[in-house]
Each structure stands twice: as C-alpha cells, then as structure tokens.
Amino acid sequence: MKEQIASIISKNVEGLSTEDILSLLEVPPKPELGDYAFPCFRLAKTMKKAPNLIAEDLKTAISGSLDFIDHIQIQGAYCNFFIKKDIFVKSMLQAAKQENFGSSDIGNGQSICIDYSSPNVAKNFHVGHLRTTIIGNSLYKIFSKLGYTVHRINHLGDWGTQFGKLIVAYKKWGSKEAVEQRGIAELMDLYVKFHTEAETDDTLIEEARAWFVKMEQGDEDALSIWQWFKDISMIEYRRAYQLLGVEFDSYNGESFYRDKTQDVVDRLEQANLLTESEGAYIVDLSDYDMAPCIIKKADGGSIYATRDLAAIFYRKETYHFSKCLYVTGQEQKLHFAQVFKVVELLGYDWAATQLVHIPYGLVSLEGAKLSTRNGNIIYAEDILLEAISKVKEVIAEKNPDLEHPDEVARMVGVGAIIFNDLYNQRIKDVSFKWEKILNFEGETGPYVQYTYARCSSLLRAVPDFDASAEIDYSVLTDLDSMELLKAINKFPKVILDAAEKYEPFLISRFAIDVAQAFNHFYNSNRINVPEDTIRNARLQLVAVTRKTLRDALALLGIGCPEQM
Fold first, then answer.
1. What angle do CA 325, 330, 331 make, to 5 degrees?
2. DSSP code of 378?
3. CATH homologous superfamily of 409-556
4. CATH code, residues 2-83
5. What is the rounded CA–CA span in Å between residue 39 and residue 454?
6. What pLDDT band is residue 364 in, cutting at 50, 70 and 90?
7. Which fold, 111-369?
8. Which residues are within 8 A (CB) of 23 and not within 5 positions of it... i.e. 6 or more apart?
9. Digit-coded pLDDT (tens) for 414-472
10. Could you tell me the residue ranges of all domains in the chain?
11. Chain-centre distance of CA 72, in angstroms?
C-alpha cells in the first residue's frame, strides 16, 4: 500500500521519484492523523507554492485513485492518508502469516564476513567479550534473514608478545600441575603477576619479546607451550558459546596468518609504501592525520596490523566478500582506520566501502569498569550462570509447577543478558544491573518472552483453532487491534534499517513495541469469547503476534519459552 501511495504521488509531482517519496512517507505519531503522511515542504521550492497549498492540490489530484484509501486529510503541509481498515487488516494479517515475513532477497549472491568475539587466548572470556559476541551474532542473523551468505569468523587473539609474557611467567612462577588443575584462571594469575613484576624489572619485557621471536621462528618448546595454553582457553570459550547458542564457521586466529605476513610485506615493498623507522618498518599515514601503521617490529617480529592485513587479503580471495565487518570496541577505531587505509593505498578501491569497523561502548557491572591487566574481571560464564540461577529462584517462587524449569531458566536468563546488551545503540556503554535486566515488567527480554508465552497460552486454550480459516476482518478494526497490526507491519523495514546501520537495537525496540501493543490489545479485548467469529479473528492476531515476537527475538539470538 505504501508503495502504491508513493507511486501515485510521484505521477502528480515533479522532481521526486517513487523511491524518493517512499523515503519521505511517514507513519504519523497519532492514529487520528492517519496511517501514512506525506510532507510537502520539499516541493515548495520547485513548485514555487506554499506547502499547505501543494498538499491541497495533491489531495484533489489523487483522491479516488486508490481503492484502499478511505480518505485523505490535510493537516498543514501534510497529506494524511487513511486506509480502509478492513483492507489493511486483511493484507497485514496475510503478509505476517507468511513464514518468510520480514525476509528479503536483497543479499542473494552476496557474501559478508563478520569478525567478532575474538577473545585473546590464555585470557579469560570475560563479560567485556559478551558485547562483541552478542552484537556479531545478531548481525549474522539479520544479514542472513536478508539473503546474504554470512561467514562467522572468530579471529582468535592467539599470537603476539602476550604469549611471550605468559611463557616467561609460567617458567618463572608457574607449574604444570597448577595450570592443569586451575586452567585459564591460573594463566590469568600468571599474566597479572608478570605485569606486577615487570613494573620493577624491565628485563622481563625483553625476555617476553625474545620468547615471542622464538615462537615466530618455530621453536618447538615455545610452540608446544603456546598450543597447550590455546587448548585450555578453548575449553572455557566453548562453554560460554554453548550457553549463548553461538557458533562460528571459522576459528582462524592471528596464528593462522603468521605464514602469510610476508606476502603483505612484499605487496607494500612493491608499492613503495614501506619506510624504515628506528629499525621497524612502517607505512607513513601522516598525510591522513594518522599515526604510522607498523608492519614489522625492530626485532623482526610481525604485529597484529600485519596479520589483520593478511586476513583481509585471505578473506577477499577465499570468500569474495561484498562487506567485511569488524565488531570490536571503539578503542580500536584508529587501528582499523590505519589498516583499511593501507589496503586502500595498495590500490584496492573496495577498501573504502567494503571494510567496516563496527565499534561499541564499554561494559561495566554496577558501574565498575572491567580490566584484564589488573585482575578486576568478571567471567562471562559466571554472569550467564548467575542470570540463570536468579531466574530459577523466581520460577521456584512464582511458578513451582512449571514444566522444564531448567530450560526456561536458561532461555530467560541468557536472553535477559543479550536483550540488555542490545537494547541501546551499540556505541553506548552497557551496565549490568540485575534488578533491571531481570524485570518481567520493564522494557526487558523477560517482558517480551513473557508476552510470547502469554500468546502461546491463549492459543493452547483453544485446541481446535484453525489459523488458516477465513475470518471477519472487521472484527480487528478497533483502535488497539489496529495499533498492534501497525506495529507488526514495521518488521520488514526494521530489519533492513538494522542491517544498513549495523544496529540490532532497532530489532529490540521493535520487539518491545509489539509486546506493548499486544498487551494493550489483550487488556481491552477478550480473546476466548463464545462468539466464533470474534474469537477466531482475535486468535489469528494472537498467532501472528506470537510468530513475529519469536522471529524478532531469534534475530537477537534469544529463544522463546512456551510457558513462564
């Protein structure tokens, strides 16, 4: 309907295409102002007429042109379109019933790489890692919904001087028994101890660098310790991923590219981009108001920028991506700007449009900033298990006879953490506050899940309900039913907007809007009434709401319990 309105307007105005008008059409803030509104301000200059007069002329020109329009009303410079309610209800219900509602084929034939999670091996998977993992997983689901082939890449931080530091710490203060017994917790303690000792002993840093050079040169002792540390780390990471329901297509980390960095150096030398600086080799980016990009350290070792460059070329040649997205903290903004600029300077024009850094804000627990180096850390697994435990307590108190309580507690607890992370723009900081996260009545994940469960309960109460049966659409033309359908109607555009802006929070806000609209509808309309005509129509709206909430939460990586 929106497209048809845009088409008929474009035939009666000059200088604006149907696509232009589609982008200008608005949904008014109040239902009494209509279903769609077209602002005429932009036409004033070209038509040399006051916007309100243009709106009047437009109304005269297109009135009666579309059979689904009940009437057009002028409000200042706006043409407000009122859709015939029963036609809107029928078309909306039929569209939302489709299994692929919200899906698109705009990504067909295109490949996207998403680089996310990427914890540093031998460091615990802390609550700070949740953000990149949760955001990246949601973007994967959003782009997949739009038809893209998405490659989920966990670029493990499994190479670099930090492993030299750990090896030094292990050999000086660690033991095989302690590492085997305590796992990554012992490695973390060794890492913290190294930095504490290095504050008064400068030789430790040099020892660490020497051990990393040994790793790069293939030293058997160094590599065996490194591989052991990596294996221990992956055990913890996979536990956290299992709780989150997250999977990856590739775990190729920095170490995978260590034999590919020479190709990067060769490309830069051939392009005359390498410059020697104090024994190191750099790409000078001063013309672009950026610090130099270090390619090779003075000791001959590679650096993460070199490995990131190698990864870009490998992914382009392997996946032929149309976009390569990097979901990391905003503190890495300069790093990726440098790396992307180097690719561009090598003559690859696609770098400017296809390489995208997606930053996000900091994470804190009740306002305490997290840091690995000084030991002020909270494990991601502990946070997730704590959320599950707290939900179990609520279930035991309020619904002790609930079936499958452990499964429900996992869905609700983990879902609450995910929803809290994705409820605001990703660049904003996230704070974990239990009373807010687990609130079943606020704008939270449990609130949306509870609304879904309520829909499921209503449908179970009428076992002979037929979702495919013809209904009287006029039953659903009351204000609350219409507002619920209008909220659901936004789903396809919300998905497109979330992909275009790399902002999953748009899906979260949509889910809240639909849940709130449903609860208004539920409170003002009895569902299981004796009259078949009314009951069946309202149950169809319940079924469509339930499906839409399920699909929206799925795009966030959240499951839906049938009972709560």
1. 120
2. -
3. Isoleucyl-tRNA Synthetase; Domain 1 (1.10.730.10)
4. 3.30.1360.70
5. 39
6. confident
7. Rossmann fold (3.40.50)
8. none
9. 999 999 999 999 999 888 788 888 888 889 999 999 999 999 999 999 999 998 888 99
10. 2-83, 111-369, 409-556
11. 39
